[in-house]
Amino acid sequence: MRLHIKNVSHSYDQVEALRDIDFGIEPGEVVALIGPSGCGKSTLLSIIGGLLKPTGGEVLMCDQAKPEGCLNPLTYVFQDFALLPWRTVAGNISLVLEDHALSKSERDDRIAEVLAQTNLSDFADAYPKQLSGGMKQRVGIARALAVRPAVLLMDEPLSALDAQTRILLLDEFSDMFARTGMTAVYVTHNLNEAVRLAHKVVALRRRPGTIKEIHDIDVPIKDRVEGMPELIAHEQALWALIRDEAIAADKELEHVA
Amino acid sequence: MSRDVEQGAPASLVRFRATGFNPKSNPVAAWASFVVVIALWQLGSSTGFISELAMPSPVAVAKALWQLIVSGDLWLHLGASLQRLVGGWIMGTVAGLVVGFLVGMFTWARSPGVALVSALFPIPKIALLPLFIIWFGIGEPSKFATIAFGVFFPTVINTFGGVDNVQRNLIRMGQSFDLPMTSVVRKIILPGALPTILSGFRISSSIAIILLIAAEMIGAQYGIGALILAAGNLYQTDQLIAGVVVLSLMGLCVSWLLGRLDRWLLGWR
Q: Which bin fits A207, alpha (ψ -120 to 50), beta or left (φ > 0)?
């Protein structure tokens, strides 16, 4: 097991966001976290990567399962890209390599390699403001890949993009997972993304966030195509699972300012 | 039914309504305004409408300025002033940046820093010059101290405001890649705060010029402020206005330099 989320609970002041979350992530597995807004899925992702201290429980990482040349085992891809506007595409990737003991040529090699993997080679010297949303997220992916992560933590990576770009990037993610066998935790509220990319879908219930069901999808990722009957069946099963929660979330008044 | 419009039913033209509120720049008009004002001024002086004693003509001011240049007095005054301006500004800015970063980043510095700055910022710094003269003597150090003190506070306020405004998600991104603290400060917080810091430089440099002149008027042998004061005492209004023109040019130079600095450091915007 690469990651073990062990009895994790978290509260913000009075509000209990997560209660007793317990599951494991195997090497090479893509786990999607789904649930209505307010179910604590982003909170859970922050806890998994060590950006938030849970009020209870812990996350354990298996050290042996690190890929070669791994500089940052748990690496995030952010919804809002989090690119430095004053650095070029190559500079943004360089940022996460500069503090490691890599020679200039090793660093340049890694940058060139991940730019090629994400089809960004022609944009190395462009600034983020010149790029479309989809390109910015490709830079986010390239930056994450540059540190050769053990687990990719993706926080709604397609939510800030328009519908067409989302379709394109979803295909690219699917290719990437199929090709590299990357381990990943993928937070989304979009069930279509979940059934296209995940081996295992963890559906959360809200207030407090607990695991409602862990849903396995056994079609190999490389065989999955848009509109495949099996995937549609899975998507409908997931929707049936969280529909009531989503309705409740929709009707709720905001308590926390 | 709405098709009737196309088929010859009475129709009225839709009027364009979004006019105005969109001023555009015109460099020719900018220069022309100078020419017109100076020409009118000269006309008023030549016809005797403006008394030569109250307000010398542009030609007389130009002559006085030329006199100052050829006699070498101008360079003496300007040199003394620039030295004080640059020295005092740099001292105040460096101290302000350090304190601003501390206040912006650390809880322990936050509340004490903000409280002290808020209490001391509103004091007109020139009021402290007599105290600085007692501490440092009538010479240069008291003038440096006045300027530095005046520059310090707006720099602190702008710096910590700039640090506050750096997007939290960028800092969290840096931490998520395990960037060391020094790298987060140098590569994320500093460049992120730079636009606000640089706009603070515009405020602090104009404060520095005001304090420079005030300090020089209180006690200095050389300096543009001293020159203006001495000319006023002797009713040499042409020399007085010449000094004011030099100040205006100095202000323009400073703002031009800061503009260059902006373009050099903030090219990414």
A: left
CATH topology of domain A3-66+150-251: Rossmann fold (3.40.50)
Q: Extract long-range pairs of B60-65: CB within 8 Å, 24+ residues apart.
A: B60/B238, B61/B238, B61/B241, B61/B242, B61/B245, B63/B238, B64/B236, B64/B238, B64/B239, B64/B241, B64/B242, B65/B242, B65/B245, B65/B246
For chain A, give every domain's residue range.
Answer: 3-66+150-251, 85-149
Q: Please report the ipTM that was assigned to this predicted complex.
A: 0.87
Q: Residues of B with CB below 8 A from A129's CB?
A: 268-269
Inform me whether the C-beta atom of residue B260 falls under 8 Å from chain A C-beta atoms.
Answer: no
**Interface check B179 vs A, CB under 8 A:** yes
Whether residue A70 lies within 8 A of chain B, CB to CB, comes out as: no
**Number of folded domains that form chain B:** 1
CB contact under 8 A, A84 and B187: yes
CATH of the domain at B150: 1.10.3720.10
- Substitution target in A48, A66, A99 with the highest count of B β-carbons within 10 Å is A99
Among the partner-chain residues B177, B187, B188, the one whose CB lies closest to the CB of A147 is B177
Say whether residue B178 is in contact with chain A using an 8 A CB cutoff: yes
* Residue B231 included in any domain: yes
pLDDT tens digit at each of 269 positions of chain B: 455 556 678 889 999 898 888 888 889 999 999 999 999 999 999 998 988 888 899 999 999 999 999 999 999 999 999 999 999 999 999 999 999 999 998 999 999 999 999 999 889 888 888 898 899 888 889 999 999 999 999 999 999 999 999 999 999 999 999 999 999 999 999 999 999 999 999 999 999 999 999 999 988 889 999 999 999 999 999 999 999 999 999 999 999 999 999 999 888 87
The SS3 assignment for A147 reads coil
